[in-house]
Here is the input.
Amino acid sequence: MAKRKHRKNQNLLTSPGTLTYVGPDIDLNTIVTRIQYNKEFYREEQLTGKKDIEDFLSFSHPGTVNWFDVNGIHNAAIIAHLGKTFKIHPLVLEDILNTIQKPKMEWLGENSLFIVLKALSYRVPESGPRKKAPGIESGMEVEHICFVVQPGVLLSFQEEISEDAFVEVERRLKTSVGKTRSNGLDYLLFSLIDIIVDHYFLVLEKLEERLESIEDEIMKGSANYKLGDLYGLKQDLTVMRRCVLPLREMLLDLMRDESGFVKPEVEPYFRDLYDHAIQVIETIEIYRDLMASLVDVHLSSMSYKMNQVMKTLTVFSAIFMPLTFLVGVYGMNFDNMPELHLANGYYIVWAVMIVTAIGLYAYFKWKKWT
Here is the structure.
């Protein structure tokens, strides 16, 4: 996934339900993949571009789960056609096309629901002396993911096609590995959300590594980090928290639902997924607290270094003050100064100044002021 800043929301001030893609420009074609399966049967078809998809959508094998994976939501025409075919409400389609839509879940009817999630990945920014550009460095990459679930059908929508977020689930279905082929639509939804949550843990691992690296640099007093590194990491944690926190309530709503969408044999998997989501949220909070502590340590370290500099300058000033007094006294233009006529007066003054400087320095050392 490529990290880009989203452009401004272009569907503002338009009629509700207007299908306008809100997100970064993408040159790649939208790919629609249909996967049908049950315990004994598996079929996968793929359509690229804006071809007629009526025949593609019409084929149905009895007793199978139908999964339509749309990779690349920037093609509003294909999204609109899918919405018409599956009778998806225009407001739902509008949220699918809006990549800045926050995570949420809505029940559209009995055994029908709409889910918005954010898939996360992370690249560690360059830091230290090799960093090319100064400022706040953020490595969080966010991808817009949507699910529309209807009886017997699940549609998944991914923001871009450079990296398929669900390739691991597709591999399990092809090889008939695990429980995915043996269960129904509820288990497929669990598998897809579980993949997204697993990536949250991968992101947390990289954030932990970066956090430990910055912490080591701060504790060693190294100059290979900047305050922008800390605030970049804080920004990443804030983005992740905003993406993950709503998942807790979504999973609770799914497990509390009495319509029977989540079958009893699949419910333990959702409970386990809920535990994982709670673990991710708690870890984020721990890292945020540690991040705040590191900022305080950083500022304290900077203050300590400044105090050390000021202490050194103060010691030198204290040593040179009596010396300045001596040279000021003997620099006055008076004739009646007995010391001026001593043969060794010059050397005596130097000796007094040296002894005074050494004495003051020894006193400061004894007091542990240096």
Notes: Residues 138 and 235 are 7 Å apart (CA to CA). Residues 1-7, 128-136 have pLDDT under 50 and may be disordered. Helices lie at 54-58, 76-85, 90-97, 167-175, 185-220, 227-256, 267-329, 345-366.
